[in-house]
Design goal:
Structural class: alpha+beta
Helix content: 25-40%
Shape: elongated
Oligomer: single chain
Number of helices: 3
Distance between the termini: 80 Å
Largest sheet: 7 strands, antiparallel
């Protein structure tokens, strides 16, 4: 009996160690995605910023997970004359790549920016084409749709018609 208890004790220790390994692996993956996203995020001098919002909301329309997930009051939007950058604050930025909200979108790649309503909230549907030619859609909920729309319309070439 004592021999059996000894083996069970080792089995429980193994199960406990494996139960710690799974969350550690998930955290490692999230950190890897975070640092990969940080590498592609451009450094933007303050003088180049036309619009900045630190507490917007939004969701990518890439798949069902990104549509039901997203960022609620932690999405950062930065507009320069050439880019729209979407990201979030740490620790939420660990999840931003999973929910497809980490982007440096060239203004010339924006296809459309339309008003829409979702559950009584006024938002903007942004459609853009990335560097590889893939089409993406984001639902953005800035504090002021008009201010974001104006910032995007101030860029050279007027890719987004002002309203």
């Amino acid at each position: 009996m004592r021999h059996l208890l000894h083996h069970l004790h080792h089995l429980y220790r193994l199960i406990f160690a494996l139960s710690l390994l799974f969350p550690a692996a998930i955290l490692g993956y999230l950190l890897w995605l975070y640092f990969a996203a940080r590498r592609i995020r451009p450094k933007i001098p303050a003088a180049d910023i036309l619009y900045r919002e630190s507490f917007a909301s939004g969701a990518s329309q890439k798949n069902w997970l990104t549509q039901i997930g997203g960022a609620n009051n932690c999405l950062r939007l930065i507009v320069t004359k050439d880019l729209l950058v979407t990201t979030s604050w740490f620790p939420f930025s660990l999840l931003t790549p999973i929910y497809d909200l980490e982007h440096a979108i060239p203004i010339r790649g924006i296809v459309s920016l339309d008003d829409f309503q979702s559950f009584g909230r006024a938002g903007l549907r942004l459609v853009f084409v990335d560097g590889q030619g893939a089409r993406h859609a984001l639902h953005l909920f800035p504090k002021s749709r008009d201010t974001l729309r104006q910032a995007l319309a101030m860029t050279p070439g007027q890719p987004v018609p002002p309203r």
